[in-house]
Amino acid sequence: MKVVIADDEPLARTRLRSLLNDMPGIELVAEAGDGHQALQACAEHAPDLVLLDIAMPGMDGLEAARHMATLEARPAVVFCTAYDAHALSAFEAEAIDYLVKPVRAERLTAALDRVRTFRAGAARSATALDGATAPSAVDSAPRSHLCARLRGGLRLIPLDEVRYLFADEKYVVVHHAGGEDLIEESLRSLEEEFSESFVRIHRNCLVARDRIVELRRSPEGQVTVVLRAVEQPLEVSRRCVAAVRETLLQL
């Protein structure tokens, strides 16, 4: 079983590393100090399991776990945290187990056994589904980043830097302050998750509400929306004009 440890506390990582060294059939492939590093380790090593702290600087463990759930080689997640108050949120993020620090050897062993059982069952289910879409993680608070897969890694895009999202066949193009990236998510799911931040202007496009500057109507009656820091106005479909106008009035 390939394992990644993700914890911002060096002493916590040392303890977990020491416990894992005494357990057969375990290969520690990487260590990470925050959620971003944990995702990069998953992209590079495709681990079977991530031992994931929750309270970390930057991207916390709960959000990192939601991104991990979208990976093609999705790892099992076991949270390791000093606060048992996060237990409900951890299981909403589909964690296999939840360990309270300091982690005891017997609890870690039991968690590893649960992961093995889960992975065996998941493999059988995948065979039975024969390519059907797996259920997604339980919804919780919206993410603060979007995650684009790159060759050999991942790029995390802060949501407040996203200008608009455009559906292009099976991908969504994220137009953001740093350029453009493709993500493998549906525009509908993004609209549902980020309904407070984005508004639909067309069946293929969502724009950031706080980027809207004005609506324009051409002599031919075509309506476009002007976004801050976006050179080209974007087309607004007739059915979406009222919602965009209402958004503009609320800004």
The gross shape turns out to be: elongated
In total, how many beta strands?
Answer: 15
On the 0 to 100 scale, the average pLDDT is 88
What are the segments in which pLDDT stays under 50 over at least 5 consecutive residues?
A: 126-139
State the major sheet: 5 strands, parallel
Helix content: 25-40%
- What's the number of helices? 7
Q: Structural class, please? A: alpha/beta
Q: Compute the CA-based radius of gyration.
A: 21 Å
Proportion in β-strands: 25-35%
Query: How would you classify the quaternary structure?
Result: single chain
| Order of helical and strand elements | EHEHEHEHEHEEEEEHEEEEEH
CA-CA gap between termini:
51 Å
Describe the strand arrangement of the main beta sheet, using strand numbers: 2-1-3-4-5
Structure description:
This protein is of the alpha/beta class. It is 31% helix and 31% strand. The chain contains 7 helices and 15 strands. The chain has helices spanning 10-21, 35-45, 61-68, 87-92, 105-129, 187-193, 241-250; strands at residues 2-6, 27-32, 49-52, 76-81, 97-100, 145-150, 153-158, 162-168, 171-176, 179-183, 198-202, 205-208, 212-217, 223-227, 234-236. The strands form 4 sheets. Strands 2-1-3-4-5 form a 5-stranded parallel sheet, sandwiched between helices. A 5-stranded antiparallel sheet has the order 10-9-8-12-11. The protein is elongated and about 75 Å long. The termini are far apart.
A few lines on this structure:
The chain has 251 residues and is α/β, with parallel strands linked by helices. The chain is 31% helix and 31% strand. The strands form four sheets. A five-stranded parallel β-sheet has the order 2-1-3-4-5, sandwiched between helices. A five-stranded antiparallel β-sheet has the order 10-9-8-12-11.
